[in-house]
Design a protein that fits this description.
single chain; alpha+beta; twelve-stranded antiparallel beta sheet; globular
């Protein structure tokens, strides 16, 4: 069994929205929304030495710079949108891709989600927490070729994204879904193999 903690990191390619205006935090706590230009996914899978527990974390992030460059994961001009496991990431990205392809699409996603207020919302109201909000509902709709993602508590819209994906960006989004699934499965297998006691592997 491995005596060292195991930790793996993932960063997806950057998916750029169409030139039409994309907004983060529209129709939330009264704050003006922020302009955004695309999104990417970051992931981390870790397990402490001697522990059977595996922590699986993914973040959907919006980029607030029109040109973050190839090093998009290190740009300071990014905003947290959602926190999830691999299955919830797939659910969100799948709905966004579908809404970008089928006008009139409307879906409340199964399960509960975690999301974040953005900087504009926090600066607008000092009672608005920068901490991740859990147990949220996630609704994705479409109109006029654009998608609208909303994460809601029982009393308010915590965050929202309104943007448009080109057909190429839809393909890029679906490619991230496959990439996350494959990377997640691979790293979980690596952790499981490392936790098998050496004595049990003897022939």
């Amino acid at each position: 069994m491995s005596s060292e903690p195991m930790q793996f990191f993932y960063t997806s390619p950057y998916v750029r929205f169409e030139d039409a205006t994309a907004l983060l935090g529209a129709d939330t706590n009264g704050a003006a929304p922020q302009r955004i230009y695309g999104f990417f996914v970051e992931g981390e899978i870790s397990s402490d030495a001697g522990s059977e527990d595996v922590i699986e974390s993914y973040w959907l992030k919006a980029v607030t710079s029109p040109d973050p460059g190839v090093d998009h994961e290190h740009t300071r001009e990014q905003e947290f949108v959602a926190y999830a496991d691999a299955k919830h990431v797939e659910s969100i990205l799948g709905a966004v891709a579908t809404a970008s392809s089928i006008d009139g699409y409307s879906r409340k996603l199964d399960g509960k989600f975690d999301g974040y207020h953005n900087t504009s919302q926090i600066e607008f109201n000092d009672r608005t927490s920068p901490e991740c909000r859990d147990d949220l509902s996630c609704v994705v709709t479409s109109k006029g070729g654009a998608f609208h993602l909303k994460m809601l508590s029982q009393t308010s819209v915590v965050t929202s994204v309104f943007a448009k994906l080109s057909p190429a960006a839809v393909s890029e989004t679906l490619a991230i879904v496959s990439e996350v699934r494959e990377w997640n499965d691979l790293k979980l297998r690596e952790i499981a193999a490392a936790k098998v006691p050496v004595s049990s592997m003897a022939v």
